[in-house]
Amino acid sequence: MEVVKEACSETGFFQVVNHGVPTPLIDRAFQVSTHFFDLPADEKLRYSSGSDAPLAPGYNRQPVHPPYRSEFLLMFSPSSAMTNIYPANPPHLREVEEEVFTSLSKTASLIEGIINDCLGLPSGLLKEFNSDRSSDFLMAHQYFAATEGQTNGLTPHEDSNSITLVFQDDAGGLEVFRNGEWIPATPEPGAIVVNVGDIIQVHTNPSGCCGY
Q1: What pTM did the predictor assign?
Q2: Are 13 and 176 within 8 A, CB to CB?
């Protein structure tokens, strides 16, 4: 418990194993996502909602210029008012993504409870605060390869939610800012990276200020 408390307080990141999400399911999720992203651009665009919202269901492609050259497939919670858009190819993508969503939701609830207790918050506070799960979403994200003269990736930021759960492939790239330097979050097979968001910072320090 002290290890989690220290990680939440000092870094805002930690990795967990034995988290309940089956490794074969994680592998299948990477496989179907890779299959989809390898499709021709015009076929992938068939599964775009066409919305200009920052987060719209289905396929989305960021601008091709740096540093945001990426594409992603977004699925909202079944309880959301948003209508999900599922690609027909590969055939089992919807089945796999929905299974991942269900499994990760259970793990997220467990981790929230652990964080709640480790940080000394009132019993069940985060569970009650996040009782409406309609805004939860799952994203399969792919960054385009960097070039010799151009890097690629997100600018420094904090997540504004309670927690974000991240699976990384062996390419890595995620970094954590601590004590004035960026530290690589080295991918570990089967591990989940937990990012503690600003909502928890507000709950533990209501008078504080957060965000870049």
Answers
A1: 0.89
A2: yes
Confidence at 209, pLDDT banded by 50, 70, 90: very low
Examine residue 80 and state whether it is found in any structural domain, yes or no.
Answer: yes
User: Is there a contact between 174 and 193 (Cβ–Cβ < 8 Å)?
Assistant: yes
Residue 211: inside a domain, yes or no? no
DSSP string, 8-26: HHHTSEEEESS-SS-HHHH
Domain with residue 31: its CATH number is 2.60.120.330
Which structural domain range is residue 26 located in? 2-204
pLDDT at 64: 63
Residue 209 lies in a domain: no
Contact (CB, 8 A) for 165 and 108:
yes
Tell me how far apart the alpha carbons of residues 151 and 68 are, in angstroms, rounded to a whole number. Answer: 10
Amino acid letter for position 147? T
Give the 3-state secondary structure of residue 139. strand
